[in-house]
Amino acid sequence: MPSQNVADILIEALPYIRQFAGSTIVVKYGGHAMVDEQLKMDFARDITLLKYIGINPVVVHGGGPQINEVMDRMGIKTQFVRGMRLTDAETMDVVEMVLGGKVNKSIVAQIAQAGGRAVGITGKDGGMVSARKMTIMKEGAGDAPPEIIDPGLVGEVTHVNPDILKTLTDRGFIPVVAPVGVGENGETYNINADVVACRIAAALGAFRLILLTDVDGVLDRDKKLIHSIDTGEVRRMISDESIVGGMIPKLEYALSALSGGVGKCHIINGTRRHSLLLELFTDQGIGTEVLL
Ligand SMILES: Nc1ncnc2c1ncn2[C@@H]1O[C@H](COP(=O)(O)OP(=O)(O)OP(=O)(O)O)[C@@H](O)[C@H]1O
Ligand SMILES: [Mg+2]
Q1: Residue 218 Cβ < 6 Å to ligand 1
Q2: Distance 31 CA to ligand 2 centre (A)
Q3: Does the record's keyword annotation contain Cytoplasm (predicted)?
Q4: How far apart are CA 282 and CA 274, in angstroms?
Q5: pLDDT tens, per residue, the chain with 292 residues
Q6: Burial of 83 by CB count in 10 Å (0-12 exposed, 13-18 middle, 19+ buried)?
Q7: What CATH code is carried by the domain that includes residue 257?
Q8: CA 10 to centroid of ligand 1, rounded, Å
Q9: Atom of ligand 1 at shortest range from CA of 242
Q10: Cα(239) to centroid(ligand 2), Å
């Protein structure tokens, strides 16, 4: 006999399914959340399920650890500043190959296995993500003036043209986007995946933006989960260094996505099975909600 619980669970999801029908949800799948095959397959199933119940998921993925692994194997050193990878031409080649190739296509293949139809693209395809070179200001120690750091081929997004995404989703496909952009002169830029996800979410006017990472959400100094965080608290926690590394661009750009018209944004733990479904379809939200 199937359990009554299963029916209860489906019924609990009904108001959410109704609310989300026809809407666009941008999901950033962090490279740090892609820890094992089981989790990646669960993620692919979750995304496929969303598509079949009438939601339009758009996946943007990272791949930091996967890039590091290949760089290590090739004997190339990596440095990070404020969560951004310093990228010379040789590093850029590896980044583009790993993100646009290996990582992107493995997500596409897993969604296919789950019964969905995914199309893997980078920000270069369809003129989607235009970028320019980023400069990073690093505060000097004591009274020293701020230092300007040249991160190489690290880009910031200047414009997102979402036409290709709309075309794909309208025809029943699930776009899977690698965070690579193109400059005015055709040069390739490595862009933080959170930044690309947030800008795409704003360009699409997404109903939800979900950032899947490898921690439960934003944590305070005692490693306790913060259930919701606003602009003031983000500023305060960055300046006292309670928020560091990859969490900085995640929060800064999540805030700009919200001011750009995205309905809601959550940071959740992608290393917990089916966290995406739990966040979307149950009464108690998990992770951290980012508020303006
Ligand atoms: N206050 C904080 N709360 C939670 N995590 C934090 C905090 N400050 C820094 N972090 C770090 O941010 C990390 C998440 O960002 P990170 O860029 O490493 O991963 P990702 O964005 O999920 O993956 P990828 O960069 O590959 O796309 C966490 O693993 C944690 O180490
Ligand atoms: Mg990151």
Answers
A1: yes
A2: 8
A3: yes
A4: 12
A5: 677 888 988 899 999 999 999 999 999 999 888 989 999 999 999 999 999 999 999 999 999 999 999 999 999 988 887 667 889 999 999 999 999 999 999 999 999 999 999 999 999 999 999 999 998 787 777 888 888 888 899 999 999 999 999 999 999 999 999 999 999 999 999 999 999 999 999 999 999 999 999 999 999 999 999 999 999 999 999 999 999 988 999 999 999 999 999 999 999 999 999 999 999 998 778 999 999 9
A6: middle
A7: 3.40.1160.10
A8: 32
A9: 1
A10: 19
Q: What total of structural domains would you count in the chain?
A: 1
Mutation test residue for ligand 1: of 26, 27, 28, 32, the one with most atoms within 8 Å of CB: 32
Which ligand number lies closest to the CA of residue 67? 1
User: Distance, CA 46 to ligand 1 centroid (Å)?
Assistant: 22
Residues 229, 232, 233, 236, Cα dihedral to 10°: 160
Query: Using a 6 Å cutoff on CB, does residue 245 contact ligand 1?
Result: yes
Range of the domain at 114: 4-290
